[in-house]
């Protein structure tokens, strides 16, 4: 099995590879505004003769869970279906459309008004929700995503979310917090954020004056982010491989810091053990090769947009902001978003 992202966009290719996906570069012919998913899939198959079954997953369905996809794959591989597509059950009464100027009445489509039943007493109807389409190669080569021995897979209503227009975004964001997939293990509240100083809190540049004094710059948005984290009860600590104690003291952050560090992971493990935390309760923001093992260990990890490639590959989240330009604040907002997910799951 393999996971592919089909795109003609350099940034999408970069992100896809960072998260372990393989990339198929679309040709200009199937990258038009009018191009269909089927056209892109058929082009992909022309370059990959080893693929027998394609699962087309729509990026606009953010609440899709891996367990659903495993069951769908079994329908094709073990039960012999040629194509499987996603549906959702809806309880909506339909009426015929009457266009302006037409001299006729609307008619009920799926109910008898004389024997109107309660929605809760009606099983409803199945509608395609466009979340995914699985099909065997021979069908797609004929120009079909659905055909042969067909089956539908009914998704839970709360998982059936589709982002089609701008106003769908806020609804989708809230639905993801409550019903999205965040990994096999349950989320825990973050209790500690550890941040690398150079390249995360600062942009990594060091200015040296004539009298050999060092100066760095930072973004006030990051200071606000640190204060917000502390108000939420999250400890914030800093690491640096150089001696920047005077700089940190001048910034008056009020946070524990360890400088001249030769082994960041060892310091992180010591802090985690001293506070009695699980790794799920630790967040880490780093940007260099020396941060990679810490990024892998932490339950929640992130890198600034300009972090090195190895650090980006190890992180769970890549900020849009660069180091020293709001990355700490952005990661703080990301943590708050996931904390909402934790609180939502507890209420269920």
TrEMBL record:
Magnesium as a keyword of this entry, yes or no, is no
Please provide the Gene Ontology terms (biological process) for this protein. N-acetylneuraminate metabolic process
GO molecular function ontology, one term from the record: N-acylneuraminate cytidylyltransferase activity
Q: Transmembrane region positions?
A: none
Highest rank taxon of the organism: Eukaryota
Q: Which PANTHER family match?
A: HAD SUPERFAMILY MEMBERS CMAS AND KDSC (PTHR21485), N-ACYLNEURAMINATE CYTIDYLYLTRANSFERASE (PTHR21485:SF3)
**Entry's family note:** Belongs to the CMP-NeuNAc synthase family.
Q: What is this protein called?
A: N-acylneuraminate cytidylyltransferase
